[in-house]
Design goal:
Layout: H1 5-11, H2 21-24, E1 48-52, H3 61-70, E2 75-79, E3 93-97, H4 113-129, E4 134-137, H5 147-158, H6 162-168, E5 171-175, H7 191-201, E6 206-211, H8 212-218, H9 222-228, E7 233-238, H10 255-264, E8 270-273, H11 281-291
């Protein structure tokens, strides 16, 4: 997988390891009953929930899709092109397609633009053909570049593909990542950077992928920020802080309150769970979907 190769290989396998007894005994963070055979779980559905593929590398994509559908989710996130059709077999969609480039090599460098455009154009066309709504893009690492220059370069590059995205009806999402712990030197690590890129590009088909785990680490104040910048946010990711594990009460973000605030902004996109399960992955996903079903 292009986006999370290293983390996906090393951490997703660990998600199937047994949890410590102390953690498993917590009433909210402990293991929950797995999904029962029969009809899918009925959800309130004001949040369209998804599961990020790379976090579940210990199971096949078909198996993950079966679990997501049974738990009342509606999509799987961050799939490569050859995987895009699999969720439809289970009544799901791909909520975010992997796009051109990668976390370290993105749109903030002019020298990357030609290659990124060359890769983005056919991906946009194929996503539109499959009726898939979203494609991810990245700022890339700073490598000494100022914020002003990084924004200017991102704007110049993304303006080369947003007209096609508009024509095809596919939305590009630039992801916010933290540079403190997980992605050192990543450029889009504060909200103002991404918002300024979106403002200057001026396209309804460029939004922010607002990863709540990363925003909490870098800036906090999640509810105020998502309210203030609601017009620029098109997609959310979850993850427990610290540790990027379950989103239960063993970590610091109150996800149920955050989801209620997201609903109140009028958000109609997807919220994808991008945490690394430290316990049984299906039980943890069931718990996360229940927490966010507001």
């Amino acid at each position: 997988m292009q986006r999370r190769q290293f983390l996906g290989a090393s951490l997703a396998a660990a998600s199937f390891a047994a949890a410590s007894p102390a953690r498993a005994s917590s009433p909210r963070s402990g293991a929950l009953p797995g999904p029962q055979a029969g009809a899918p779980v009925k959800r309130i559905g004001r949040i369209r929930q998804s599961a990020s593929r790379w976090c579940y590398g210990g199971m096949s994509l078909d198996e993950l899709c079966k679990h997501v559908a049974a738990l009342g989710g509606v999509a799987v996130d961050l799939l490569d092109e050859h995987e895009w059709e699999v969720p439809a077999k289970y009544g799901l969609t791909c909520s975010m397609c992997n796009g051109p480039g990668g976390i370290t090599k993105g749109w903030n460098r002019v020298e990357h633009h030609d290659e990124l455009v060359k890769k983005a154009e056919p991906l946009l066309a194929k996503a539109a053909e499959k009726k898939l709504p979203n494609l991810i893009v990245f700022s890339g690492n700073r490598a000494g570049l100022s914020d002003a220059d990084g924004i200017k370069n991102c704007v110049a590059g993304l303006k080369r593909i947003t007209p096609l995205a508009e024509k095809l009806g596919v939305t590009l999402h630039m992801e916010y990542l933290n540079s403190r712990h997980d992605h050192g030197d990543y450029h889009f690590d504060h909200t103002s950077f991404g918002v300024e890129v979106c403002k200057q590009v001026g396209s309804p088909r460029l939004k922010l992928l607002y990863d709540l785990y990363h925003v909490q680490i870098m800036e906090g104040d999640l509810i105020s920020r998502l309210r203030e910048h609601k017009e620029w946010i098109g997609h959310y990711h979850t993850g427990g802080v610290p540790g990027r594990n379950e989103i239960d009460d063993g970590q610091e973000i109150q996800y149920r309150a955050v989801m209620k605030a997201i609903v109140d902004t009028g958000f109609t996109g997807f919220v994808a769970h991008e945490f690394i399960p430290a316990r049984d992955p299906v039980q943890s996903l069931a718990q996360a979907i229940e927490i966010c079903d507001v």
